[in-house]
Amino acid sequence: MGEMSLNREKHFLDPFFYPKSVAIVGATGNQMKMNYHITENLLRLKFLGKVYLVNPNADEILGMKTYPSLNDISADIDLVVSAVPYSITLKIIRDCAEMGIKRIVIVAGGFEEAGKKGEELHREIVRLTRESKMRVLGPNTLSPINTSNNFIISFHPVEKLKRGGISFVFQSGLYEYKLNWIFSHLGVGKIIDLGNKMDINEVDALEYLAEDPETKVITMHLESMRGDGRRFMQILRDTSRKKPIVILKSGRTGAGAKAAASHTGAIARENDAIFDGMLRQAGVIRAQTLDEFFDFAKIFEFTEDPPGDNRIAVANISGGEGVIATDACERNGLKMAKLGEKTYKRLRETFPPWKIPLNPLDFGVCMEFHMADFITDLNKFFDDLTSILEDEEVDCMIMQLPSTIFMKVSATLKLPKSAISGMMDGIADIFLRMKEKGKPLALWRSSMDIMEDEFVNMLESKKIPVYPSSERAVKAMAALYKYKSMREKQR
């Protein structure tokens, strides 16, 4: 990245993600208090560093020795997480300054966004931290999270940390309630919530993740800009050549900007049309909604190779869904592929007694006439479908989940749940073989029931992206193609 390049390990943010020791100020053993899970997650998920707990009213929390104050800890502390009310935060900052601690996360809100008194407290903390050369994440934040060392700062009980290549930057705790979903469906490298951006801002986070070898996809949620806008755009341009970047910018309307200011203290003054144009020039994918934000993140992390061009094939169970998917392809800049004679000959024997179009392919009606053969020879049926991805005229494919067969088999053959699960796993492996053809493949759901949930979990554990609707699958696939096109224009 030329003059923009920085070694990740030398970046000041690195110890926020890789602390050797962390002190939790405001730790509690009371399970009804939100702070409880900050400590409980670190212990249960086996954070690789040392944890020190500070609470003047407890000698022991979760079986760990607890200190009355920071000053009572004789060991070196890499990072302090201040999880005390805003009124006590200034004292914690002073203790850190006296002890020479250089990194702090301020969880509490109630500063710049909370009127004159909060603004005065904000200014005093800024003055003191700058004098002490201290770096501050927040206030009004939860994070960081780093799956490579099991480091997590969260108010919610997190079941597991699923490691992967997506790193998230948020300016809100909106992701907090979704953490278990995120770690169930996505592979995550790091998560950072910038909060009110008293010190650390979006430029710092982008600069760090740009050079992080564990981060393959950068996703950023922004409500306002605090850092140097020109530097931000320059890093975006440099980084998008080697890593996809997805940005969701909220606070786009006057009312939205006012709502953002109520909890972050910053007004989003950027002209949205200009910002949108700058992102396109920088080769960045913009998400318009929170659904798109996570949808795009998933397809970029799950897909190794972008589509060669914009020619797409659609396979559906319902003819009506095929029409909806076709409309979505046209609206999102994807062209319906014209499959060749060789593909037609492979698929013809699966057709009903009449000729049907190859794209979109209604394999639901095919199943109606070949259901017995389909169940007894799944491999052959899906091998025939795989011929679509082998067609030279096809660059990518979306397909509706054939999950209704599980309900039919379960109801008619009275198989035990373990047998149905085995059947699901077998079909998931077939989809994996389809994906290994080297062309992007995305699926969309059919029944939305509990049985299908299990199937979706199997598929996404194998990095096969599944979406709730054909429209969302199409938009995600279109984002892959758009990124490829923008990157080619940058060359």
Describe this structure in words.
- It comes from Candidatus Methanolliviera hydrocarbonicum.
- The chain is built from 18 helices and 20 strands.
- It is 44% helix and 16% strand.
- β5, α3 and β6 form a beta-alpha-beta unit.
- The protein has 2 domains: 293 residues, Succinyl-CoA synthetase domains (Rossmann fold), CATH 3.40.50.261; 187 residues, Rossmann fold, CATH 3.40.50.
- By secondary structure, the protein is α/β, with parallel strands linked by helices.
- The strands form 3 sheets. It has a 7-stranded mixed β-sheet with strand order 3-4-2-1-5-6-7, with helices on both faces. The protein has a 7-stranded mixed β-sheet with strand order 9-8-11-10-12-13-14, sandwiched between helices. Strands 15, 16, 17, 18, 19 and 20 form a 6-stranded parallel β-sheet that branches.
Query: What's the arrangement of strands in the largest beta sheet?
Result: 3-4-2-1-5-6-7
Mean pLDDT: 91
Low-confidence spans: pLDDT under 50, at least 5 residues? Answer: 1-5
CATH superfamily of the largest domain: Succinyl-CoA synthetase domains
**DSSP helix fraction:** 40-55%
Tally the structural domains. 2
What is the global morphology? elongated
Oligomer: single chain
Level-1 CATH class name of the largest domain:
Alpha Beta
